[in-house]
Write a structure and sequence with these properties.
mainly alpha; 1 helix; rod-shaped; coiled coil; DUF4164 domain-containing protein; DUF4164
């Protein structure tokens, strides 16, 4: 083989190596982008869950406050009824 033939062979080997390195870099980039997309999707799901849970919490707090109001009203009415019964019994 002539010196120029060896030079071509070396150049081809270097080109193959460079293409292999490029393919690896592209594959790595695609993998990172896919992983980033997965993370972004998970972040969106977490935000949606947080929003839903915050809304459920607000509703639960509203119901709890309403129950407290009803409880106070029932207690007030019971006290009034007991006082009325005592007044009737004391006659």
């Amino acid at each position: 083989m002539t010196p120029s033939g060896k030079t071509v062979d070396v150049a081809l080997a270097q080109l193959r190596q460079a293409l292999s390195t490029l393919e690896s870099a592209v594959d790595g980039r695609f993998e990172r982008e896919r992983a980033q997309s997965d993370v972004e999707g998970e972040v969106r799901r977490v935000h949606a869950d947080r929003s839903r849970l915050a809304q459920e919490l607000d509703q639960a707090e509203f119901r709890a406050n309403r129950l407290e109001e009803v409880n106070r009203e029932v207690s007030r009415r019971l006290v009034t009824a007991m006082e009325t019964i005592r007044a009737v019994l004391d006659r």
